[in-house]
TrEMBL record:
GO terms for biological process: electron transport chain. GO terms for cellular component: periplasmic space. PROSITE patterns: CYTCII. This is Cytochrome c556. Binds 1 heme group per subunit. Pfam families: Cytochrom_C_2. Keywords: Electron transport, Heme, Iron, Metal-binding, Signal, Transport. It comes from the Bacteria. The keyword Metal-binding applies.
């Protein structure tokens, strides 16, 4: 029962976040979404490193956040939003939008696959992190400007 409650809370939180920031500029919204994904990756990393105890509900919530957020993420890059709000979005996003969107969807699909078979221990979470991290890194190297 606790697992269902935590998963429901995570999904509701993601939806609430989407509604709360829907009126913001796309730059602020995408920054908020990346912070949510970063928080989810951080939670998984804490489990993988043994800094936090393994809890299936926490793993499920983190993977749900990644999946949900990355499915909506590519929509936050309309023409004209290349700059502002200290954006780290590289011009390459708008030059190769199809590839950018594919990379975001790949991360969402990886999270969905992991949700279908949630890792059962810290070692499994570590393996999941390697899968997710490679996709994150690939996108960041191409589509994120270093400050």
């Amino acid at each position: 029962m606790r697992l269902k409650s935590l998963v429901f809370a995570a999904v509701a939180g993601c939806l609430g976040l989407s509604v709360a920031v829907a009126q913001e500029e796309p730059q602020a919204l995408r920054q908020s979404q990346m912070k949510a994904v970063g928080g989810a990756i951080g939670a998984l990393g804490g489990i993988a490193k043994g800094q936090k105890p393994y809890e299936a509900a926490a793993v499920t919530a983190a993977l749900t956040t990644i999946s949900t957020t990355m499915k909506a993420f590519p929509n936050q890059f309309p023409e004209g939003s290349q700059t502002g709000s200290e954006s780290e979005a590289a011009p390459a996003i708008w030059q190769n939008k199809t590839d950018f969107e594919a990379k975001a969807q790949k991360l969402a699909a990886e999270a969905d696959s992991l949700l279908a078979a949630v890792p059962v221990d810290a070692a499994g979470v570590g393996a999941a992190m390697r899968t997710l991290g490679g996709t994150c890194s690939d996108c960041h190297q191409t589509y994120r400007m270093k400050k």
